[in-house]
Every structure is written in structure tokens, then in C-alpha cells.
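User: Small ask, check this?
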Amino acid sequence: MSRPAAVPVPPVRRGLRSASRVTARLAALVVTVVTSALVVGVVAPSSPADAATTDVRTATSTQLYGTGPYLSPTSEAAKNATALRTSDPAGSRAAATIARHPVATWLGEWATGSLLTKTIDSATAGAAASGTTAVFVVYAIPDRDCGGYSAGGFDERTYDSWIDQVVARVAGKRAAAVVEPDSLAMLSNAACTASLDEQRYRILSRTVAAFTAAGVPAYLDGGNSNWVPPATMAARLQRAGVQQARGFSTNVANYYPVAQEQAYAQEVSALTGGAHYVIDTSRNGQGWRGTWCNAPGAGLGATPRVVDDGTAADALLWVKTPGASDGTCNGGPAAGKWYSAAAQSLVAKAALALPVDTGVVGTVDTVVGGLAGVRVTGWTADAAAPTTSLPVQVWVDGSPAGTGTADRPRQDIADAYGTGADHGYDLAVAAPAGRHEVCVGTISVAGATSRLGCETTDVAGHDPVVVLDGAAVSVGGIRVRGRAADADDPTATLSTTLLVDGAVVRTTAAGRSPRDVDALPGFGAAHGFAAVVPAGAGTHTVCARAVSVGPGVDTTGTCRRVSVPASAPRARLEQVASASHRRVTVRGWAFDRERTDRATTVVVRVAGRPAVRIVADDVRDDVDRSYGVGVDHGFSAVVPAVSGQRSVCVSVRGIGAGGDRSLGCRTVRVR
């Protein structure tokens, strides 16, 4: 990469999100993809003029990439090979190994002005001289990574201007652009707001259209094979303008094997009118390692190369910089900084050649957590014995959890691959309550074990689940919100007890559809609760306890601490009038959040008469609806007064440390 190593960027990528992944045709996957496919295309280097006149949407991969992606002599790995030579010799050697292979150049908000120009011009000049193609990654979209390890980006107006500068520098030159990794797949993430979708589609459509007009192939984010289902990803790509782009990228910064990624990408391609794609192989040499973030045991993957195999694949690329941290996880530094220990491990476990195929393909269609267990469905088959039903193994958090056989009818697989129908599986395995990683694998007829995929799911026990999502100071005390449900009766509205400093202060029903929190996995949305609990000045611990409807026990979720400042009573004087001889009517409401279960005292003073005290305990449903403090906080009284023009002053006596509240004085003509 040509950016400063200290800038936290390249993406950090997830997975374990999809509900369905269907591979490409079995014969194409087994024979074309792995055994004889992904062939390096070698052609005579094209000139910049040729690149400028080529329609990047219809050109061949070799026309676009020449002899391959550009290898920068000043890559991040090359810099670290030099920098670590004395202080970390082993790290230096690992960085030097990585530096021998071409890696994409990342451009983001750290690269502007003259630095942006220099970075692009240096790479495109080097590519022109070597007959290769400079691969750039643009990574500065607004609300990038939705607040994750690689958070950042420009605002929309600045981003559009910045993209115009990038496009102007690469126009007519041998270059390719991977556009905003994760930007589309992350729309499935709860951390991304619903309003983000339309902005993303608008920005991405403009961006890829600009690159295409400049003669530069652009690839939108295609997630990976274990994140978003192909049909969902295809729909997002179409909304983001894939028809104006060369295609999409997959597996960026992730670890999934080439065959699995190409099977997924071929299906997405078919659903998007034949869009082309590139696969990031920078760290997939050992396959999925149980986490996306600085995965222990990962290895460098297949070396970057042009693909010319008759599929929609254009190239295998090292998009993610091997050795750059994903973030502060698994011992790593901030995102984008060089992580020497990880670089050494990647080199030690490298698998730079394409893997030898086991002949086994298949998918994990669903992983659904339930009550004390998990259900997994999918299919698998072996090209060497297409009518044989294979054994299926399930692991929960790395431990064997169950076995079965893929022998259920799947006519869709038979129709698509000519393998016979009996290749589906539908297994249930036991698992304790909590969040678990569930993996599914099979064994080929030759005895080789293959991993079909992994997903994370939540398993419920007999005890209810309760989550306190928020607790914040409000006018009436502390406003709490959360969710509660019981797997023994997923449709039940649970009684939820709210506690402040260990004392029960209110009971509420968890039956709302919360607007600003996620639904509890597996229970639906109608299990939210919201209420206001009384709390005086000071720091308080607020908890929620769900009452079990089955054989489990009541559960108290994680509590929250809230500091409440001292406050005078909240009140409103709504009426001061004289409707009868020597009488004044006053009306309004008042409460003190120090003790909303108690009525406050209202003091009325009329000039020439002694003060009158009123208890604010009339029913006022509207006050409870507005502030959640109960209904008994209204006042209405008739007090004696001397005829004539009189001043009527009203105040409320405070219960807590906030003191009294004056409601002011009004002048009224007393009859």
C-alpha cells in the first residue's frame, strides 16, 4: 500500500451472515474452477491508448490486466522489510516475502492533494512500464465500516469531489478499481442505519459510472460466500449500478477458499447479467479460521494472477495488504498498522499455489439456533461419486456436536448438477444457551474432510432472555428500554420487573415492537419494553428481571449505572380564574422525580389571604402518557380570596435535593 502505515484503514471483514449460499454448477466448479481453471493469462502488454479505447465491460481479462497486477517496489511490505531489518529480523524476512507479490494500493481520506496525485501517478507509471495493471482500492465512503475498527470516510459532497480527482488521474491508464469493500455487504449489519442504504446506492452508482467512462474497470463490493445470500447481494449490486461497472469483488480481507468463493461469485454473476469478478486471495491459504479479525493460523493464499478460464472471473488479487492489522483484536494494533507477528504467521502457513480439489462441493443453507440446540440445513456432493450420499459432521465452537448423512431429497440440486436428488441434509444438534459458532463439514469418498461453512447463531435455554438496551435520565426519573422473551413460549409477552439499586420499583410488559433496538434472535420483534422508573439525585444501578413462563428461573440481565442530577419538581400551572364570589380556581399538575410515587404539595398565595396548601394527587392520564410517572399528579382547587384585583402566586414544594419550583404569579380580578 502507498498510504502511511499509521492510518487505520483497510477493511476488516466479516462473514457468518448469510442464510443461503448456492454454488455454481458442480462440473464447472470441480473441473473448471480448480483442476484446470484460474489459468494465468499471458499476453503482450497493451499500451495506455489501447486501455483507453477498450470497453471495460466487455473486454477480456487479459486485455484489462496484461501480464498481471502491478508490483510496487514501495509497498507497505517492502517498507517494513527495510524498517524491521535490525529490530525484528524475522519480521523483516516475512515482510520481504510478502513484498515479492503485487498488492492493491489503498486510497482513502489519508490520501488527498499532492499525496493522492503522487500515489496514483507512481503506480500507473510503473504499470505502464511493466505491462501490468495498477489495482487501486477506494475506501473513503461516508460512515465507512458503520463505526467498526475501520470507521471513517468523507461526507458525501467531499467524497464525490475526491472520486473525481481519482478518476481524473487514472483515466486512460492501465488501472483497475476495487470500490469500497464491505459497503454493500455491511448493509446487513445492525450497526448500519436504514437511512444509509439509499446514500450508499447513490454514491456507488456515480462512482462506478465515472470509472467506466474513464476506461477503468471498477468492481463493487460483493461480500463473500459466507456473509450475504447470492440473491440478496445481486439485488444490492444492481441497485448500486453493477450494470455500469465491470463487476464486483469477493472475499476482500477474508479467508474463504478460492473454489468456495468462485462458486458463490458465479451465482451472483448469473443473477447480475454476467458481471465479472475478482477474488481476494491474500490470506485464504488455510481457509476460514474462525474469525475475520487477525485470524490466528491464517496463511497467504494463491499468488495474484489473471484468470482466463471461460468463467466470469477476471483475476485473483491480493486486495487486503497481508501483514496489515484488521484492528485491535487477537493481539493486533490499530487497523491498517503493520502487525509483524501476523505477517510471519501468514508466510509460515502460506499456500501460494491453487489448492488441489477434493471433489466435494456443497453449502450451509441455514444455521438456526433454537431451544437448547441448533438446526443446520444444506447439501453436499462428491464429483467422484455423484450418486453417493456423503456423511455430514457438525461442530459447535470447535467441538464435535453431531453427525448425519446428506441423503434428503433435493431435486433442485439434481436438476442443476445431474448428481441425483439425495444430497440434502437437515440435522439438529444439542448446544447450551448462548452465542456459538457452528461449522458443518463432510468427508469425500476418498476420505478427505472438507469444511462446508460456518455461521454464528444464538441458542436459547429454558431461562428467559432479557436485555437492557438503554437507561438514561429523563424528566420523570430514568427512562429504560429493552427486550425480554422466553424460548419456552416465544410468543408470550413477559412480565418484566424493573429494579433501582436492588429495589423493585415497577413492573412492565415486554410486548412492544422496539424501533431503536434489534429483535431478539429467533423471537421476533414484539418483545420490547420501555418505562420510566423513579430516581432521585445520585448514581443508581438499574436492572431488568424477566419472569419465566416455563421451567426456567427468572433472569436478571446486565445492569446499567446512571447518574441523576438534582432537580426541582416538574410542574405546570394551567389555570388561574375567579368563577365565583371571593373564590379563585387554580389547576395544573406537578411531580418530583425524586419520588414519583408520592404526591407533591402545591402552595397557593392570594394577596390578603393566608397561604393554602394543595396535594397534587388528582388523576391526570395525560401526564403519565407524556412522562411515564403515574397518573396521580394533578391538582385543582378553589381557594378563598378578597374581591378586587389580586395577585395569585403558586409554587411546588420539592421532595428531594432539587428544592422548590415556583410557577410564578398571575393577576386576576376576584369577584
Remarks:
- The two ends are 87 Å apart (CA to CA).
